[in-house]
Amino acid sequence: MSADQTTSDTADFGFRDVPRAEKASMVRQVFDSVAPKYDIMNDLMSLGVHRLWKRIFVNAIAAGPNETLLDLAAGTGDIAFLAKERGAGRVILSDINHAMLNVGQGRALERGLAAGLTYVCADAERLPLPDRSVEKVSMAFGLRNCTNKDAVLREVRRVLRPGGRFHCLEFSNLEIAALKPLYDAWSFKALPAIGQRIAGDSESYQYLAESIRMFPDQATLAGMMEDAGLERVAHRNLSGGIVAIHTGWRL
Ligand SMILES: C[S@@+](CC[C@H](N)C(=O)[O-])C[C@H]1O[C@@H](n2cnc3c(N)ncnc32)[C@H](O)[C@@H]1O
User: Fold this and answer.
1) SS3 state at 37
2) 101 C-beta closer than 6 A to ligand 1
3) Residue-by-residue DSSP string for 130-197
4) Using CA atoms, how far apart are residues 133 and 158, in angstroms rounded to an integer?
């Protein structure tokens, strides 16, 4: 059994166990609440570093002009826009949350980036896309919010064409344990306080901090990807393991 414990009746929602069937709607409420302030909060919470992580991630994806990139948990579109600017052919932005995608659609229009972008509101555990239909799949800061992560990874493999590659950017485990107290103070004290001040919502940011700690570490996630049938799985830590990029191929 993977770290996802898919046979359990409960699922983790941050540090709490909640009925499995309710997690998705609880996560939806979080992102309904944070959507209007999501982008400014990302800058504040990461001191702007998320932009660098995303740039490195999109460069690693390297979606070409003849390729379709499916960006799961696309949110307000950061990955899709960077990929488009970098020369990706077609990008499908998929997210379970209308509010997040709506913000993304508005941003795409403002930037004159609408061509070649399509939007699919869907749960990454059940994608309404044909088998073997895309060359690349990406997911940035999305997997930890999904109830059944194994199902997401199986869907990723199913929709990838043979020879296609999956890239996942997620929070992960710090390489230097001595930095943990500082990181914990930032996550559990500063983030909810900033969330309260900027977005009038400390609880959602408390959940985000907790969900980061509950997410599988580098080796566990790599094992889950292999169990889902992805091959040549590898990972690369950024910022000392605060985040990691995992990759795997469908061969
Ligand atoms: C932290 S945001 C990341 C957004 C974007 N990828 C980025 O890096 O800025 C997480 C996103 O995951 C989405 N999400 C949560 N559960 C999901 C699911 N089961 N399927 C698809 N998207 C989901 C949320 O709606 C939210 O937009």
Assistant:
1) helix
2) no
3) -TT-EEEEEEES-GGG-S-HHHHHHHHHHHEEEEEEEEEEEE---S-GGGHHHHHHIIIIIHHHHHHH
4) 9
What are 210's two structure tokens?
């907790």
Q: Which residues contact 110 (CB under 8 A, 6 or more apart)?
A: none
Round to whole Å and give the CA distance between 167 and 225: 11
Report the nearest-CA residue for atom 27 of ligand 1: 75
CA 245 to each of CA 91, 153, 171: distance values in angstroms, whole numbers, following the listed order: 20, 15, 9
What would the two tokens of residue 109 be?
Answer: 């229009």
CB of 104 closer than 6 A to ligand 1?
no
Residue 131: phi and psi, rounded to 5, are -60, 150
Residues 148-174 have pLDDT tens digits of 999 999 999 999 999 999 999 999 999
Alpha carbon 85 to its chain centroid, in Å, reads 20
Ligand 1 in contact with 78 (CB < 6 A)? yes
Quick: pLDDT tens for 78-117: 999 999 999 999 999 999 999 999 999 999 999 998 899 9
In angstroms, what is the span from residue 77 Cα to ligand 1's centroid? 10
d(CA 45, CA 29): 20
Determine the residue of 145, 149, 156 to mutate for testing ligand 1's pocket, defined as the one with the most ligand atoms within 8 A of the Cβ atom.
Answer: 145
Closest CA to 27 of 223, 203, 249, 240: 203
Please work out whether the CB of residue 4 comes within 6 Å of at least one atom of ligand 1.
Answer: no
